[in-house]
Amino acid sequence: MSNDDIESLERATLAAVSPEAVEELDGWLLPFDRGTVGRAKSAVPMSHSVADETLVAQIEARYAARGMKPMFRVATAPCFDIFRQELTRRGYVAGKPTLVQTGSARTMRQVATQTVADICDIPDDAWAALFLGEGFDPVDGASRVKSLSRALDSVYASLRQSGRTVAAGAGSYSNGWASVHGMRTDRAHRGQGLAGRVLAALADEAARRGLDRTFLQVESSNLAAQALYRRAGFTTAWAYEYWSFEA
Question: What is the pTM of this model?
Answer without folding.
Answer: 0.95
